[in-house]
Amino acid sequence: MNLSLRDIEYFLACVEHGNLDRAAAACGVSQPALSKSLQRLEADTGLALLDRGGRGLRLTSAGLAFKGHAEKLQAEYRDAVRHAMELRVGEAGLLRIGATGATVDSVVTPALQRLLPQRPALRVQLTQGLSDDLNDQVASGKLDLAVTPIYADVPATLHQELIKEDTLCVAAARGHPLAGRRKLALRDLAGQRWILPRPTSIARKALDALYAEAGLDLPVAALEVQHFSRGTLALLAESDLLAVLPQSALGAGMDIAVLPVALGKPLRRSIALITRRATTWSPLMKEFRAVVMGGVR
């Protein structure tokens, strides 16, 4: 067997686009050249990797199993090329980081504020997105690492390292009628409208679970957000809405109060550094990790 990295690249492009013409255009080759590459790869492996029936391309069961190995080969090759480049330029190089809306300002940007002055030649590509998408990009080698909230177990190909835990709280504007109370139960919040994370978020699921355990109707979201931006916090401070959000999102000088709600058990959200298992850690990745793990309180 004599696998070609180019054939691997073309195969993965076909999987991504699901169509020979689109995959050929993405790779900058002709459709016949791409077809020959697929035939060569299937001959080398002795496997039928793609079903070409119908209007598109679909992975066979053997192709699905091979896809994981192909992604690993491609990611390791990209690592080797990039690390060689870093050695040629004195380890300045490029660092590709993923962050969610919840982590870009609270974790990643403060880390870069420390790291960039130490590395004048450092270039950073910062990709912001949702946790699942960032995990996929780390797994495929498109990102070196990502900083995301932990919503579920990450795939086996990835490694997660806890950076910090946020305590979640119920908050409202300082002028809200409930803000003057010394003690509140969930029942006291009945009828209120909320700014809430998306239903798939760990904070939303935890809050809904508390309401369900108490036999109460679930809180009603007047606004659903992916993360609490400054604009969202300003809206909270000027409205009669409630919100469940990380306490770390509340800065000094905000007209927002944490409500003394007896939740029964603390609600927490974990933030983690996500990397690919068996990746070769570049000096820049190690430095970013050291700054993140040492600089977050």
Kindly describe this structure:
By secondary structure, this protein is of the alpha/beta class. It has three domains: 79 residues, Arc Repressor Mutant, subunit A (Orthogonal Bundle); 100 residues, D-Maltodextrin-Binding Protein, domain 2 (3-Layer(aba) Sandwich); 103 residues, D-Maltodextrin-Binding Protein, domain 2 (3-Layer(aba) Sandwich). It is built from nine helices and eleven strands. The strands form two sheets. Strands 3, 4, 5, 6, 7, 8, 9, 10 and 11 form a nine-stranded mixed β-sheet that branches. Strands 1-2 form a two-stranded antiparallel sheet. Helix 7 links the parallel strand 7 and strand 8. The radius of gyration is 24 Å and the shape is elongated. It starts with a helix and ends with a helix. The model has no long low-confidence stretch (mean pLDDT 85).
